[in-house]
Predict the 3D structure of the following.
Amino acid sequence: MTDRPSAADLGRAIASGETDPVRLTRDMLDAIEAHPLKDRIFARTTPERAMAEAEAAAERARLKLRRHPLDGVPISWKDLYDTAGVATEAGSALLKGRVPAQDAEVLRTATLNGLVCLGKTHMSELAFSGLGLNPSTATSPCVNDPDAVAGGSSSGAAASVAFGLAAAGIGSDTGGSVRLPACWNDLVGLKTTTGRLSLKGVVPLIVSFDTVGPLCRTVEDAALVLSALEGSPAPDLRGDTSLKGRRFAALQTVVMDDLDDAPARAYAQALDRIREAGAEIVPLDFPEIEGPNKDSAMLYTVEAWATWGAEIDARPDLMFQPIRERFESGKSHSGPDFEAAWQRLRAVRETWARATAGFDGVLMPTAPNLPEKAATLMELGETYVKANLRTLRNTRIGNLLGGAIVTLPAGLPSCGISVMAPPMAEHRVLRLAKGVETALAG
């Protein structure tokens, strides 16, 4: 993947006249059509829309009226972002044939900024799995092992970028759904703060935790895509992103338990590189997270069932059984218990803010494990359930605590390191991640 140009590089080539957006988009669409795994990555492409947008971008480039550094760059969209006149089915037979009349607000903003929509990518059913296994539609491949799952729920978004079929992919993250597939496919993924980017026109899972975020080749790409989705200036990553004098907390509680060998080694080596770059790393125990971590099943499933219960009850046989059962578990909790769990979580978020106030950012391994073979996970029951919960364990903590988080490749295949900052500190965490990216490349 390293020999493929970044989205930012493509944008610069368009600006200089070296690259024509029309040819770039046509080449990308042709590559998708020719790829042997395309049907496991893209749910559907939007060639007419893409070419029209590319032609408009080419005209703006000719007139020196480009709207954004990524104007004319082709990207993919997870199949839960509404696309006007094009099916948006969120990886579920429950939504088969659903065709929205309007674009999602973030897609509309990105289009106004000149990004080209290549099409819609496969995902976990209704976004409720960290694995990316979806026998209802398609299971996207991992770039390091096409027989293994790509991570979820933004599985096709990751695969589209990792296999060179999109310059960036737009996913969503409720419990790790941007960061896990980014990690397992050796990409950069940005989990934004809940509420930072509009969810209007995004098929919901758990609105209290749902976030919009990009999967990219570089931190610079993530910063630029964020600005295009938001319609705001990108953080300046050209200045001082040195780690010298930076102070990081390395979270110990939960996230360091029972790591597979490769993620453990990659994370330790990444910490060494960060120290060599001049940063201080302080181990941080935070036992308070264990309560919300135990509450997370209730916090997630109650709201998920409230959103989807009627649809699922009407046609339960259309769903992949383990995901349906996860939704159905939300019925077993009472309203007072759910509200008490939220009160506990809000208190822990305040404690976390105080505990981390003296640090520039917090570090942790992105995932404790490596992707498993899809065939293994199809052995329903405990195999799937345990793998899913373990996979989501580390990333879900970031959603519970509400921060802005970037995952980066940690040096071994399908291994990642995450950098976390406070809520709404996306520009800060992107600058820190740029410094980490530079240190790890050194």
Summary: The mean pLDDT is 97. The radius of gyration is 20 Å. The longest helix spans residues 290-314.
